[in-house]
Amino acid sequence: MTGKPLMAKATAVWLVDNTTITFKQIADFTGMHELEVQGIADGDVAAGVKGFDPVANNQLTQGDIEKAEADAFHRLALKFNPSAVGEEKRRGPRYTPLSKRQDRPNAILWLVKFHPELTDGQIAKLVGTTKPTIQSIRERTHWNISNMQPIDPVALGLCKQSELDSAVQKAAAKKAADGTAMTDDERRKLLSTNQSLSMDTEPRIPTAIEGLETFSLSEDDEEEEDNKSTLVDADSFFNLPNDAPEDDEDD
User: Fold this and answer.
1) What is the mean pLDDT of the chain?
2) Is 72 domain-assigned?
3) What integer is the mean pLDDT of 208-215?
4) 118 and 172, same domain (yes or no)
5) I want to staple 39 with a disulfide (CB 3.0 to 4.6 A). Which of 45, 61, 76, 182 is the partner?
6) Can you spell out the DSSP letters for the chain?
7) 30, 61, 81 — which closes off a domain?
């Protein structure tokens, strides 16, 4: 069995103190390094840690320990616990460390703002929150909404980029299945990060000047341009040529 015992270090302390099992066997069972187990035996590691009896706590059988003591190559196996079957697949809100829980509202605000196509259930699963909290942020009735700022939940470590991309793709599939028309902005938001980065950049003409590439002068404008070209600079009226004849003075 690939699982590791509860309180691995304390279990290692108990095995070192109460059995003749090798350091490697203990290390393999607890998931620790062999040198760390040796440090426990030398008193350099886990000083003051009280041993945790794996037999009394239903994690090992006495018979398995005796086999390991008789055979240095025998690997200890975590005792099968029927009540723990399927525990790793239990569905429920994502656990969020205490140090990051204060960042969840900012992450929810980011998801609501930049991915409005995500459902409350998807957001709750991504960042480990409740639907009433999401609703209050959507409606801007959250008690701390004035102090919140949108922050990417991936940057905060609340979810993985692959998980966010997967949720976005599911939202895109639902949009397509419902036949709902999407704007260009919505389509762009529904792309995963990898898809966005792999797309070729295409220069687009801003809407404000769209159509100017076919702009041409009208006949009136052309006539006005011709008239301007015939105008003589004002300075030329007062700059006579050097060889111009001067008027004869009266005798």
Assistant:
1) 75
2) yes
3) 50
4) yes
5) 45
6) -----SSHHHHHHHHHHH----HHHHHHHHT--HHHHHHHHHTSSSTTPPP--TTTTTSS-HHHHHHHHH-TTPPP-PPP-GGGTTGGG---PPP--HHHHTTHHHHHHHHHHH-TTS-HHHHHHHHT--HHHHHHHHTT--TTGGG-----HHHHTSS-HHHHHHHHHHHHHHHHHHT----HHHHHHTS-HHHHHHSPP-----GGGTTGGG----HHHHHHHHHHHHPPPTHHHH---TTPPPPPPP-
7) 81
